[in-house]
Structure formats: structure tokens, C-alpha cells
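Checklist before submission:
- one chain only
- standard amino acids only
- sequence pasted in full

Submission:
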Amino acid sequence: MTETLTVDVCVIGAGSGGLSVAAGAAQLGLDVVLFEKGEMGGDCLNYGCVPSKALIAAGDKAHQARTAGLGIGAVEPIVDFAAVMAHVHRTIATIAPVDSQDRFEGLGVRVIRAHARFEDERTVVGGDVRVEARKVVIATGSRAAVPPIPGLENLPYLTNETLFELTEQPRRLIVLGGGPIGVELGQAFQRLGSEVVIVEAGEILGREDPEAVAVVRDQLVADGVDLRDRTRAMRAETSPKRTGVVLIVEGPEGESRIAGSHLLVAVGRSPSTGGLDLDKAGIVHDAKGIRTDKALRTSNRRVHAVGDVAGRGQFTHLAGAHASLFVRRAIFGAPVNADALAVPRVTYCDPELATIGHTEAEARQAHGEDVRVETFHFSENDRAMAEGDTRGLGKLVTTKKGKVLGVTLVGRHAGDHIHVWALSMSAKLKLSAMTGMIAPYPTRGEIGKRLAGMWYTPALFSDRTRKIVSILKHLA
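Returned file contents:
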């Protein structure tokens, strides 16, 4: 017998965006129903951000043991793969209560563990429940895209959704895709002792600044990763002895075969819209996701979409920001603009690569000659020198009048140092605010202040300024 509920907000998907919407709305006193057919916490907690960073941390420990330096003898670490994976799952389990059904029911959210679909423009059904809601939020996220490579469908390939269930360490891991996921996980497995080959049809981390990517590339090669750029996968086969996989590829030197014990597919992600019956609700969508306006409303004005499925970027922190916009707009009626968000992104390889806004190439394409670029290398940073790790640089991209268009940082913990630029761009601060900041010494974070200071250097120490000083000195 079907139960019918009439509520203020119905949320489909219990990932970062959906949980943030549900928690915010419920704590404001609204009646909320949340549908989730899989694990609470979604991809980020169970298959993405959390487990991958736990694995990367283990790989970093192994790398530190091998490379020590600064007078400390290096040793070859003993990697207990089962213990590494236990750490990964222990991390998930530690964070899971924050996203749990019990917690959200404690907040007053009705959680229904079932697949949800639209029955009509304002009704969602799932399990034995029928929900009529004033507002519906689609937060179903995305999942690993699988390319149409002949033979791939016959192989036991891995994606991020299955990788962390491995009980035996891959002897030789082929990673198909040189984007952030492929680079992060490929490097981690190489450092844990697997042989890793990364196959990328274009250039690795092709969206990022080439000068910053070169720093990452050098480290991957130093780690022993076999990089195959500009190499396209043509077909896949089971190895002759059926003990692994073979990827037939075509690269700069023609066709070749790459054999491995395991294959990880990491060529990107696709929005999860299947089975929602969006057409019944009059919701326009395509391969990039659900079409939304700047207030994240779909073509059905009662329905919003947030996070990966909204097609504006695939980041957990962006999904959380979308949830905040929904609460402000749909509940408080405040004007919002999802297109105006300053969204940082980080590739958590070593060294990390963090970007916000335009890269230099994007800025020049958008603004032509009205672009200035300042570059500061970590080899000039005292903390980096003290730590014996001067890899990396910071790049500030502005208009000639000083409007910040973008910043790229590559170096150890770059993701922790992009925050100040995220604040600067979000708050539309002038560069002078950055130069006026007192940065603690010695820190890698000083690079932000140094980049801003470099922008003012030509004018500050120009002949014109020197003439003005020569006059002022007699008046002081």
C-alpha cells in the first residue's frame, strides 16, 4: 500500500549537495523527504574524495620513507596492502556518521532508501512512498564514464566505484585517463609498489596550466610512472593466459600493446540522470546534465538541480555551494547566481596542483592583450628551502588594471594555499588587500602575498616614483 506525503522539500540523492540541502531545510523547520537508493554520503564519501585521499596519504608515507633526505637515511618501506585498504575503509567509517541516516532522521528528515523517479511535474515516487512537494531538488551526482572501446565490456575493469574493494595489490595497473583521478590514483599505486602506466589521448591534466603540469609530470616520471600521452586506446583484450588485461593503443610511434594485471578506467564522469523519468516532469537534460538557470532552477520551475548533475562542475565543495544557493533562493527568496561562483579545484597528486579562475591561456583567449602574468617559484620561498622541497610555482593572472582573473599554484600542499585567493576572488578584493596582509614567516602561504607584491613592483620602483620620492624627501 503506497504512502502519500505532502512536504516542503523533496531531495533526490544523499551526496554532498543533497545532504546539505536536506540538513539546511530541516533545521529551518521545513518538512523534508530525502531519497537515496545507495550509500548515504554518495560518491565522495564512499568511492571518491575520502577513500582516494586516504590512499594517497598512504602512498605519500611510502614515498617519504624512500626519499627521506635532509640527513635522514632512506629505506624501502614494507607495504602491507591489506592494512592500507583497512586504513581507507576505517577513514570512510569514521566520517560516515556525519552523513548517516540516523543523523538526518534526528534532524527531522524522512529518509527513504529507495530509487526515486518523477511521476509527474510535482510528484516523486520511490519504494512504497509517493511524495508531493513544493520544491524538488535533484542531487544525484555523477558516475564514472566508460568509453566505447571494443572489448572493454568483456573485461573486469575497475572504476573509482570498485577500486577500493581490492584485496590484492595490482602488480601492474593500467590507468586509462590522465585527468585528476587517473593522475592521483596512478601516482598513489606507483608509490605503494605497483607498476603503473597512464594512457591519455591528449596531454595529462590537459585543463591546467602547462607550466604547472610540467612540475607534476616531472615528479610522476621520477616516481617511475610510465606516461603515455597522445595515446588513444583502440581495443581491449584479456591477456593470453587470462591472468590480466591487454590494451591495444595507438600513439606517436604507432600501434602497441600494453599488458597489465588490472585496468582502471578514469576518463571522466557522466551525470546520473538515468531512471529519474525526467521527461515526465518536463525537465530538459542532455549528456552534460540537467539544464539549469543561474538560480539552479530546471525547465520545471518547481525543480532545482545541484552538484555534479547540474553540469556546472564536478566538485564536492561546489555541490555544497549549490545547496547554499538553493536555500537562499528557494527558501529566503534572495537573488543568487550560480554562474558567478569562484570555484577552486585541486588535483591531489604530489606536488598538488590548485587553480581558481582562468589559467593564463584561458585569460588570453578571453581578454586578449589585456592580461598580465606574475610568476613566483617555490625555489625562492624560505620555508620550501628549509624543507628541501622547492618544487613548484605560483602564477597570478590579472587584467592590466589589476583585476584578478585566476591563480594557479603547484607545490606541496598547494590546495591548502589556494584558499586566500578563493576569498579574494569571491569577495572581489583588490590586490592591495593581499599586499596589506601580514603573512606569517616562514610559510609557503607567503607566496600569495609575494605574487600580489610582484604586480605592484614595476610601478612602485619606476623612474616616476623615484622622482616623486626625491621631492617628498625634502618635505618629510
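Reviewer check: Residues 152-268 form a domain with the FAD/NAD(P)-binding domain fold (CATH 3.50.50.60).
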